[in-house]
Design a protein that fits this description.
The protein is α/β, with parallel strands linked by helices and 186 residues long. It has 2 domains: 67 residues, Roll (Ubiquitin-like (UB roll)); 90 residues, Translation initiation factor 3 (IF-3), C-terminal domain (Translation Initiation Factor IF3). Helix content is 35%, strand content 27%. The strands form 2 sheets. Strands 2-1-4-3 form a 4-stranded mixed beta sheet. Strands 5-6-8-7 form a 4-stranded mixed beta sheet, with helices on one face. The longest helix is centred in the middle third of the chain and has 18 residues. The chain is rod-shaped and about 80 Å long. The chain starts with 21 loop residues before the first strand and ends with a helix.
């Protein structure tokens, strides 16, 4: 049996740190049941493994006889895998002026379509400099036209809102069925 007293910040109590009169042993390498803590420690010592408290809130607490370092390694590995599988949301910004002309508007619209096809959210905003804040309605019309032109690609997550000198609209890509599924249904 190994002493792991150097691991004081660990989330599980192990070996001699388990200070309850009896524990419930579970696992593959032991006969399951309720044992006095000293008996459970003796079994762990015979197998040259650690007695680890898995569920301290249960009555009696649930323990497992395992290699504690290996157990921690596997937990870290699982957490890394979960983190890797987590979806990373990318937000692309597109900036307009209150008097953006048609050519610039179409250029930015084309970029927004490609961002949405990639699965990124689009944050479009009209930036008002100086006295151009007087054209708030023009900025709102521009953003609503932008959202309307992208209705096949995106849905509006947040309608135009004025925050300081910016009027912002958020667009989220629509879930598109994959081409493979369409081919199978034909």
């Amino acid at each position: 049996m190994r002493n792991n007293f150097r691991d004081t910040k660990d989330q599980h109590r192990i070996n001699e740190r388990i200070r309850v009169p009896e524990v419930r042993l579970v696992g593959d390498n032991v006969e399951q049941g309720i044992y006095p803590t000293k008996e459970a420690l003796r079994i762990a010592e015979e197998k040259e493994l650690d007695l680890v408290e898995i569920s301290p809130t249960a009555v009696p607490p649930v323990c497992r006889i395992i290699d504690y370092q290996k157990f921690l390694y596997q937990q870290k590995k699982k957490q890394k895998e979960q983190k890797a599988k987590a979806v990373k949301i990318v937000v692309k910004e597109i900036r307009f002026g209150p008097q953006t002309d048609d050519h610039d508007y179409n250029f930015k619209l084309k970029h927004a379509k490609s961002f949405l096809d990639e699965g990124a959210k689009v944050k479009a905003y009209v930036f008002f400099k100086g006295r151009s804040i007087l054209f708030k309605e023009q900025g709102e019309v521009l953003l609503l036209r932008f959202a309307n032109d992208l209705e096949d690609y995106a849905k509006v997550e947040q309608l135009p809102v004025l925050e300081g000198k910016r009027m912002i609209i958020m667009l989220t890509p629509k879930k598109q069925s994959s081409p493979k599924k369409e081919q199978l249904s034909e």
